Amino acid sequence: MSDPDKSRHVTIMIADGRKQWRVTGPLEQELAAHRCQTATTEKQTLDAALEQLSSHSTIDVVIVNLLYPAENDGPPNQEPLGLAVVNAARDRERAVGNGKRTTLVVALRQPSTAYPDLDREARDAGADHVLEWSDLGPRSRYGGLKELAKWIHDELTRNDLIAPLPELSRDDEPGILTALSDIGEANVSLLITDLAATVAEVKSARLTYVTPGASGAHVLRAELTLADDTLRTWLLKFAKDAAELKTELINSQNVAGAYTTQLVVEYLPYGPASHGGWHAIAMVFASGAKTMRTWLCETSATDHVSDVFHQLFLDGGLATLYRNATRPAKEQRHGNHPVPAVEGLMLPPHRRLRVRTAIAELEGLMRESRAVELTVAPDIVSTIEGFVRSGEIAGRAVDHRHGVLEVVPQHADLHGGNILVLMARHPRPCVIDLAAYGRQHWALDVARLVVDIVMHCLDPAPESHFWDRWSVWRAAVARTSLFEPAADDPDNPAAIEALRWVAAHKDDLLPLLTDVKQWEWHVAVAEQLLRYACRHRLSTPKRLLGLVAAYDQLHLAQSALPNVPSSF
Question: Per its UniProt record, what InterPro entries does this chain match (predicted)?
Fold first, then answer.
């Protein structure tokens, strides 16, 4: 983590042959606001600047005026002699030979018709930042010396030339190590600093891992110590896609008033902050929370499952809006008929490809006596491929006559990693990650959570890597999908209690479910199972469960399909 001995001292050389602007004092004041101690030297001649660069003294930042007075006896003129300083700084760096940035170079210029390509030439020579002198004014569009000081601080941090602040600490847990390796510790520090800029100065942050997000995102918990030694707890979401995080912030505002005030975690309105290709948003939270995935693996949670699920879904919970159904507009590609229900349950193209890959990887285990040895293996493969390819349900084609697509407002990524349980005498749930929030098929939220509980909370690792409990998992999916209570399981009491609660509350959780729509529910469960079959983070037995249990659900759906006339 952060090196406590690494200095926050910054040495700056200003090479300004024109004495254009006295920046030393104001720049040092701005850097002090970033808790940097600075030592600045001013070199007013080109030779003095080059001599300083040829020495062995440490120079963290070079600020050079590109246009120096011409060295001749002719009329007053300016020449781009400052390029020699840029080149000297880079030659000095190359001489070290470690391939790392050791000196930041900021090149300053004034508009000049004589040298229209001076910006490009400075960058080609190795300048990290090229500005006009007017950019340093406090009212400039760039932001003045305040913005330059922030840029210097951030780049010094990112290049490991000063110790990052806030100071980070963490455990050697694989999730947090992976996240910090992906994002970079310096970027994490800088993102926390920027997110806290409108709140308070952060001295230190202790990081713990919460859950992975979609498309390589990470969610971390940060226990913050502020400058006045008060404590705060944030959830931080880091992603490469800034648009996704902006959407999540917008969705957090859109759901305001839709649910109980405590159900959705409070987002900081500022953001996303951006550094080094990563973006971050923050949520205010209480310490001591656990993901539902973790919580349901604990026997002590069993007595509280009913209350937590009641708060999650009922009395102002997520199911509040599950009755607000709408139908998408008719589309020409459907012959101007209503959109078929199966359209809302089909996997997107890239996931269909992943399912085919999973079948190729796992098909052999269906015939393996040391695994599950299923006599119906060929039918499993053909049934899944038919659904993935064209939406066939166990050999039967379906269209709008079997059901019309109805969508309702849902979380749209409701798994146990996106539900946190606040640990108290009476545990309380709240949801995070509203990036996908919107209207989707009425069965998908509940189907996603049921499948996630089976995959992550029934016999979690290391037990999930063995085959002896595989048939128990398969039966739990089947019974819950039929709204029958899952069998007793003394090894997984909390997870079983959660599945039973869902089965017992189908009318509250799935208010649009009727006998003629029963097949849609089973297809929704199958679709979610196929998604989990593609996840290499899961054990092989659980991934194979995804394929086989999806097959079970497609056959249940086929049996529940309503009879329709052969012509419309």
Answer: Kinase-like_dom_sf
